[in-house]
Amino acid sequence: INQHNEAAKKGLLRMEKQMK
Length: 20
Prior knowledge:
Residues 1-20 are annotated as: Disordered. The structure is a single chain. The chain is an all-alpha fold. It has one helix at 2-19.
């Protein structure tokens, strides 16, 4: 369960970087 949260956080960070 914790691993899923980390993956979501990484995905959000990647999305923000791409938007920038």
